[in-house]
Structure to design on (755 residues):
């Protein structure tokens, strides 16, 4: 599906991996890296381009991390969050 | 709604409806509400993947409902998903369903609409069952049902998974959809539709779920709170199940008394009392705990808290090769490994699931407790009791971590597992759904107890009863006559006669094939410090661990011993001197004139029982849940080998340090 289209060449300089963001940060999904099972699962969960994601909190041991997108809550380990390339949104909070 | 429209085409007599949707979307709840119960799981034709099926009736139409494994899209990832999708596409060995009911969680409408879009292209008419809209209403963003139906051109029925409201409209919609014309199949834009039928999520402040999460997932208080929840569950199980266990035990005793009155001494009486009633009773006695544990786990799972527990502990558990989802099965196994292994179904990753299943039986379950309590009470000072008991639990946990870690480095080696887990909105659990789960699980357990475990109990009884050499009975009969004639005091006479009775049982057991087998393997067990009687006890405890207690009772001539009498509270009593079994174990002599038991032997035996897999119920459950004999055999072998190695290490090192002669 369109969500996993590799757009490596067009990433602008602001794009970072989702696991780099701190709790409280919001970002817009640019694309999901790769075309394997994990990428497909992430797409199934709603990580499509232009989706807004909010980092809610880390678990007490630092990993996994809770995110909020499309009105629901999701826990991802950093190793998977790394696959989601996002563009941080300006500090609205 | 479309249900009200007049349908011209003739109604079918029977319809097959497939329930499709994501895990946790509420498929199972809908099935429960539609039919009142879940039927026995059946396999997909030509595969070992299971699905639940149920039958119900709407007016004159027979409905066959097929609950498919969860799918989030038609791009399949796991074998289970593949089979579900093949069936929907009509590429399986059976005709495709007449109607597909896609269960849609209103809380994540956009991602769900993408699945609806994919399913619309398959062919069979769709009906959307919209769940959790009540939750969205509370959060101030309800889905406009009529608007959604108009936008996607497919009937949409709102269903309340808690109360079951809407299920009749759903049945009607199935029938209407099956006779209605072709449905709209224009491509849809999930984002645009969701925007038009549901208020945006951003406008709202923190919801109730967010406020609960702020406490439950707190970086400091989250873990202690989880500890409290687990502690509360165990308190409930151990205190709540007690009256039921007592009732089962006294029922068992009453039944045995009836038989004792009806049948004269002999093989038939022993078979019915020792083989049937005791054998099956020792298994059924776990049913109250199993039922309570399954109910509590189902309630916590349904509220949404279990996903939070997995979130809190994932890091720690993934370090040893498990996942956050392993927490519930592992914690449950402290009460009983059977519901623990059943709870492992929620683990998506197959390797994580297998590692969890084969290590869960290492958690010290409630059946080990009587063994620990008898031995600790007999051989350790009261001040040490708690520490030794704690040590046994810790031994199980540490061993499980090591075993899981080595399995993931060897047999279960594979790509790193992933955790992508929804943290659902907190909900009140539906009593009906929880009771349904409990019914299914306890029925499965009773079938196990009635077949495999029952058969094993009878085999063990047979080998412990036969052969019956002539002479033993005459010998003891002569002694009885002698006592009866010589001893005047009635009380003393009764005591002497009871002692002879116990001696006779022990003499017969010593002649049995089971005892011969025990003596035959004795050289292997010798390095662990056990005498042949303990070895026989270990063999007799094959169907269920706590059976070693009555067996030792017979062999050490303590007469009838009830393992239920050995609860933790009895450890606080500093005067167990008059207690038959404990005293007899302390006094027991081997043929070489040395004591059979001492604290070191007791410790070695406890370590053996902490690690061995003497439980038919557990092994049979592993067989069922892994659909192969490989894993129960593997579990039995590795646990028995580990138990032997650890017991030998304890005894040999202890002896070398000079503790053996104490």
């Amino acid at each position: 599906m369109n969500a996993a289209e590799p757009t490596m060449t067009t990433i602008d300089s602001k794009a970072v991996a989702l696991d780099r963001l701190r709790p409280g940060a919001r970002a817009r999904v640019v694309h999901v890296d790769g075309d394997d099972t994990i990428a497909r699962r992430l797409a199934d969960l709603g990580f499509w381009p232009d989706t807004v994601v909010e980092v809610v909190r880390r678990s007490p041991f630092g990993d996994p991390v809770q995110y909020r997108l499309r009105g629901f809550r999701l826990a991802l380990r950093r190793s998977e969050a790394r696959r989601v390339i996002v563009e941080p949104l300006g500090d609205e909070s | 709604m479309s249900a009200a429209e007049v349908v011209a085409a003739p109604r079918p007599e029977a319809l097959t409806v497939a329930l499709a949707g994501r895990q946790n979307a509420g498929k199972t709840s809908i099935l429960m509400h539609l039919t009142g119960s879940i039927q026995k799981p059946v396999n997909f034709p030509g595969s070992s993947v299971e699905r639940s099926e149920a039958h119900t009736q709407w007016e004159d139409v027979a409905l066959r409902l097929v609950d498919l494994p969860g799918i989030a899209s038609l791009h399949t990832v796991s074998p289970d998903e593949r089979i579900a999708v093949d069936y929907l596409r009509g590429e399986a060995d059976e005709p495709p369903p007449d109607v597909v009911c896609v269960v849609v969680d209103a809380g994540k409408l956009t991602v769900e609409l993408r699945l609806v879009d994919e399913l619309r292209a398959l062919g069979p008419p769709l009906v959307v069952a919209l769940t959790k809209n009540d939750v969205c209403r509370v959060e101030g963003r309800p889905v406009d049902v009529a608007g959604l139906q108009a936008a996607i051109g497919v009937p949409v029925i709102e269903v309340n998974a808690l109360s079951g409201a809407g299920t009749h409209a759903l049945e009607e919609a199935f029938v209407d959809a099956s006779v209605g014309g072709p449905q709209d199949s224009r491509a849809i834009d999930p984002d645009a539709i969701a925007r038009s039928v549901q208020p945006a999520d951003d406008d709202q402040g923190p919801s109730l779920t967010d406020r609960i999460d702020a406490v439950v997932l707190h970086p400091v208080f989250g873990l202690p709170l989880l500890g409290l929840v687990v502690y509360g569950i165990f308190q409930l199980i151990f205190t709540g199940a007690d009256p039921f266990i007592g009732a089962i035990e006294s029922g068992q005793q009453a039944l045995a008394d009836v038989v004792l009155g009806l049948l004269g001494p002999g093989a038939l009486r022993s078979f019915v009392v020792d083989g049937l009633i005791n054998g099956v009773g020792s298994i059924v006695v776990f049913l109250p705990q199993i039922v309570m544990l399954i109910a509590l786990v189902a309630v916590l799972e349904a509220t949404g808290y279990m996903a939070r527990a997995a979130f809190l502990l994932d890091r720690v558990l993934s370090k040893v090769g498990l996942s956050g989802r392993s927490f519930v099965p592992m914690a449950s196994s402290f009460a009983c490994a059977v519901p623990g292994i059943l709870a492992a179904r929620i683990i998506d990753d197959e390797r994580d699931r297998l590692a969890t299943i084969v290590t869960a039986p290492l958690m010290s379950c409630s059946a080990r407790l009587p063994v620990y309590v008898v031995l600790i009470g007999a051989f350790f000072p009261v001040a040490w009791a708690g520490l030794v008991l704690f040590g046994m639990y810790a031994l199980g946990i540490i061993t499980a971590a090591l075993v899981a870690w080595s399995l993931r480095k060897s047999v279960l080696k594979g790509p790193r597992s992933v955790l992508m887990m929804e943290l659902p909105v907190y909900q009140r659990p539906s009593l009906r759904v929880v009771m349904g789960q409990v019914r299914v699980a306890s029925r499965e357990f009773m079938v196990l107890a009635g077949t495999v475990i029952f058969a094993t109990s009878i085999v063990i009884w047979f080998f412990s009863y036969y052969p019956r050499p002539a002479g033993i009975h005459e010998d003891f009969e002569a002694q009885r006559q002698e006592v009866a004639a010589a001893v005047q005091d009635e009380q003393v006479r009764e005591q002497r006669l009871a002692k002879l009775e116990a001696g006779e049982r022990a003499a017969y057991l010593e002649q049995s094939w089971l005892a011969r087998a025990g003596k035959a393997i004795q050289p292997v067990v010798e390095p662990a410090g056990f005498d042949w009687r303990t070895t026989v006890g270990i063999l007799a405890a094959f169907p269920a661990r706590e059976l070693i207690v009555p067996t030792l009772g017979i062999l050490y001539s303590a007469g009838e011993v009830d393992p239920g009498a050995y609860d933790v509270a009895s450890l606080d009593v500093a005067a167990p001197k008059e207690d038959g079994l404990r005293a007899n174990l302390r006094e027991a002599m081997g043929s070489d004139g040395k004591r059979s038991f001492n604290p070191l032997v007791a410790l070695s035996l406890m370590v053996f029982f902490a690690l061995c897999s003497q439980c038919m119920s557990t092994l049979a459950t592993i067989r069922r849940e892994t659909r192969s004999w490989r894993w129960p055999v593997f579990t039995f072998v590795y646990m028995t080998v580990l138990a032997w190695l650890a017991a030998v290490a304890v005894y040999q090192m202890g002896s070398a340090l000079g503790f053996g002669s104490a």
User: Anything to note?
Assistant: The CA atoms of residues 45 and 94 of chain B lie 7 Å apart. Residues 1-7, 573-578 of chain B have pLDDT under 50 and may be disordered. The longest strand of chain B covers residues 50-58. Chain B touches chain A at residues 72-73, 75, 77, 107-111, 114, 141, 201, 209, 213, 217, 219-220, 222-223, 307, 310-312, 314-316, 318, 324, 416, 418-425 (CB under 8 Å).
